[in-house]
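Teaching assistant's notes for section 4

Start the section by putting this record on the projector. Ask students to predict, before seeing the second block, whether Chaperone protein DnaJ will look compact or extended. Collect guesses on the board.
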Amino acid sequence: MSARDWIDKDFYRELGVSSDASDAEVKKAYRKLARELHPDANPGNADAEARFKAVSEAYGVVGDPEKRKQYDEARSMFGRAGFGGGTGFDFGDAFGQQGGGFSGSGGGLGDLFGNLFNRARGGGGGTTARPRRGADVETDVRLDFVEAVQGATVPLRLSSPSTCDTCHGSGARPGTSPKTCQNCGGVGLVSRSQGAFAFSEPCRDCRGTGRIVDDPCPDCGGEGVNTKTRKLTVRIPAGVEDDQRIRLAGQGEPGRNGASAGDLYVRVHVTPHPVFGRSGNDLTLKVPVTYPELALGTTLTVPTLDGSVSLQVAPGTTSGRVLRVRGKGVQRRDGQTGHLLVTLQVAVPTELTDEAKAALEAYTKATADFDPRPELTALVQKARQS
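Reveal the predicted structure now:
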């Protein structure tokens, strides 16, 4: 992305949020658009793919707190007045071939310009373009419940900036190389005097890069980076949870000037299971039972993710009791293993035959001395006495 893009493009509008939107609102808007516009959901739709790339580019800036701060500062400084001003220098020209935008931390105007034009702060006579680590990239993947518990290998298609395969990042046509700018000696800055003052400004010839590409690469236009779709196979570890991020080191955007690439973060979305739930490393299961099964005791056969087990229910077990099946929960790579927690819930029939009603009435008479709510009964009697 050129530095001009930081000013000319409205990344907030691209994501459909206001410039004062919270980080959570920005992330929510990006995820929604990414799901709607992803190439897998719109096969053969060139417009959707272009929008997907634009949304990904916008989130790469305003989704990163530090880049967003720098982007806002740049827009505040240049957004209304435009480039050039009254200095006689065309900043738009200077930014034309600049890669990656503002990398300072807001340390004043001097810092901002120093970072904008990639000036190194080391001592000595010359300055050179600093290596700049590639940006991190985030994508989403959806797994079903069993895949999340047991782990899965999933294919990914990513549309993101990558090192140009044709020029290998040099920006020059294969067989040629960039030359050191003769006007600035590779520094990227030239000095000029105005009255009693001396000023440094980005070199017009190389536009602040210190290099001249006489024969640009036909695929990336001299940038050394282009946007392309690549395929990856990602192993999602067993036990991953909903909304968890998996980090793949070095799979993000390429670095500049020899710096390392950014990382790829894969955010996992887990589809709920119709029967099982999850609490940490434990799986949960609700099993309907009849009152006689709890009162008299029984043996239940309950499912697990890989089969079934038998559970002994002791006579007099209460509704809501949780029985634990050891080792039938989530098994993580670090050796931790959860359990299957089975909650027993009494199922009440909605309709009764005459025979069933008579049996229940007889049971009610036979257990008339049994009070299921002794604590409540005591409180009611105390309230009446007072």
